[in-house]
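Milestone M4 deliverable, item 7.
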Amino acid sequence: MAANPDGISPHVPGDHESAEARLLELKRVIAYHAERYYELDDPEIPDADYDSMLRELIEIEQAHPELITPDSPSQKVGGPRNDAFAPVVHEMAMMSLHNAFSIDELRAWSERIERRLEDRPVPSYATELKFDGLAISLRYEDGRLVQGATRGDGRVGEDVTRNIMTISDIPHRLPPGAPAVLEVRGEVYMSLSSFEALNARQIEEARAAGKPPKLFINPRNTAAGSLRQKDPSITAERNLSFFCYQLGVVEGGPELTSHTATLEWLGSLGLPVNEHSRSVASIDDVADRIAAFEKSRHDFDYEFDGVVVKVDDLGLQAELGADAKAPRWAIAYKLPPEEVSTRLLDIEVSIGPSGQATPFARLATVRVGGVDVSTATLHNQDQVAVKDVRPGDLVIVRRAGDVIPEVVGPVLSARPKGSKPWKFPTRCPECGEPLVRAEGVAATFCINFHCPRQIRGRIEHFASRHAMDIEWLGEKNVDLFVTEGLVADVADLYSLDFDRLLKFDRFGQKSVDNLRGAIEASKAKPLGNLLFGLRIPEIGQVNAQTLAAAFGSMDAVMAASVEELASVDGFGEVIARSVHDWFARPDARDLISRLAEAGLTMEAASTDSSLPQTLEGKTVVVSGTLDGFTRDGAKEAIVARGGKSPGSVSKKTTALVVGAEPGASKVTKAEDAGVPVIDEAAFLVLLETGELPG
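Output delivered:
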């Protein structure tokens, strides 16, 4: 194995001697990480870090061409072959692709193409997703699949035929009329849903065995490792998938003139071709497609890290040819990385509104997923222990879409000497009281109800839009009020000393009047909003509305037994016990009494009996913006007609109503579950008749 790297400086030397030293250093480190990625399927660093080192190496070689050697990573394709499998010599080399990391680089590539074509414009470009999996070559003879091989080093790959045969996407036989020899290139990948199911199975099996689960890190490495299993039955269990994107050797078959036509022909043979492959007229159109994919990259059930752009005309491809590593007629545009490495400066613990103690990482600021990140979640005490991340570590950070950044794990080869495992604190960093972790529970809590952070969190939640919707009461104002002793709980908001607020620089008469009006208006909010605003454990927005409708008043909810609460539709023993225990606390009862004295709504609004109960027994989910309803208004219309309107789709959902910009995950889940997806016009019919339009 290559020498374990001990970290390298990002500085690029200018003189020949130091450039040569830097080049040797980069070659050593790149070789190490290439082996971990291509041969061991166990990379230590994110792709973005590897790409960065490779780009630096190429820049040095461009500045000093005399230093380029045949063994340079810039001259190689893929990585070393795994000797555990029989070698397969590729009749036609499986090349790599050059990368572009900006639209400017993409345009520069297009301009180079046109110069090589003596300023003839490229008639069209084929665009397709760059899947995050393992490159594979399939060979069919007389329509029968006879061989599957990995890319390997581009010239010699690994024979993984038996494992390829277990992938349901890949046909074993092609229809009559297939060429005598057909080599198809593509990507074996693992869908996100299969990856989640695999890890769920790992957890279930570990729980049954009484052992900690060994979870897979990401779909790409899992797919690569699964395809290289010596036992094909293990590969079969992993539910791998395949997309083809290129031809290799062909003997016989039709005369094809474009890459787009090639993909259409492969699809006609029953081979899986990704539906998002398109031909576009200009590089501007390519840029538009890239922008669209960047926005929607998390709407898919598989991961991709870029968009591959190819000259569509096969004749022009042949004219352009290739260099030592990659074809000149294609390039991979890499989307902003969602995994990067940075230094973990410290591990701290935050206290949430419910008292939950959550560890998080303080990071050296790094750009990931298109934003600058300086903190990341570590989830809980067990996750820190399993990942064994320590202050001072170089760590991998992931941010996908709008998901909170998280620390994936440490780069062990770069760990400082003498580092020690981090220990979870025993006392709350806010109030100094003991932290408690119940047996069998992953979370740790500060159980001091008067902890300042919990007070702030409860007030912030109480004032939020879906609870009491108190505008002008932001996080900074809440912090000021608690710090200055103006409020100690949510009931104190209704006896706030507004005259005293004028003494603070941040308040003027208008802002005080606005806040006073918003607090006064909140008194009229429905009982369901109040129940949600109290932040009762296990009671979210939907359960709060259900609770209000089931009992009709705050007094009735407080007086309900565990059995009566458990009988509420959608509740159960856990939720019922949580509600009962919360209202049994003296401080909670005192709080409710003070809120009632302040004039808040303690009775549920009577149901409009004039409305027909057309949706009784039906569940309707709303997603997106409707023209004739606010989101809350649509839910109220459903509930007023006897229906339910939870926030998520299940197999029991009657219909999903979609407006402008609906949640893609809800639409996908509805389609997978066979739930009808309807527009606003159909929703109006459903409200009136209780039936879906034919």
